[in-house]
Amino acid sequence: MSHSIFDYNRAWFNHAFDNPDKVKPVHHAIYYFALEHNNRLGWKDKFGFPSSLAMEGAGIKSYNTYIKAFREILQWKFFILYKKSENQYQANIIGLSKFDRSLNESLDKSLMNHSTEHCSSTEQITDSIIIQQTDKQKDQKTTRGFSPPSVDEVYNYMSEKGLKDQQADKESEKFINHYESKGWKVGKSKMKKWEAAASGWLTRMQNFNNSPQKSQQNGNTSRINRQTPAVVGENLDSSGYDFN
After folding, report:
1. Model pTM?
2. 56 is in which domain, residue-wise?
3. Is residue 185 in some structural domain?
4. Phi and psi torsions of 136, nearest 5°
5. Residues 95, 82 contacting (CB under 8 angstroms)
6. What is the CATH number of the domain that holds 34?
7. Bias regions of kind Polar residues — which residues (predicted)?
């Protein structure tokens, strides 16, 4: 074979890059099945190319779709038709056109242009990321160095304030979950000191535990009307109470 598979690939993609509006997946499928078929035959100058075999190999169900794309490849001079089949069950006798290496320059140019556009796009994305990171750093500065505590830090704080291990473990987890869901805000303001918020949490919990049970009589049914520390805190937050 005077031409390598590389030469056929380059020539085909040269055409595909120059004619993106014309070359469709069906053309790729037929052309590359022809390359594979001729490869199995030992790279002949002329070889049989049955339509039914090509359709099956290229995964094309419609004969009209196949024959239209096949004729377009002939028009583009990638196939040489030596003998036309009389129907879809007989083989066309074709050959693969040989192209000069100089034609690959167009593909190289297209690839270079694509690479330049890709680099430009990458630079824009990088600039966008840098801007986002800068904005994030500005936001962090506005919080005056506040960083959310870990569950262990809140647990240790609550233990120091007198909560037993099991209760401190439970309340510290509730505290973290509550303020994480609120974006570490107290009311509409960013939290400045989590210790102050934790102290308020413990005070609300103590008031909750010491409050008398308020009941409403409804027939023979008694209902307890109390709020949990998280609910009380949420109500205070929404009213603008500052625990900082």
Report:
1. 0.44
2. 5-99
3. yes
4. -65, -40
5. yes
6. 1.10.10.10
7. 206-228
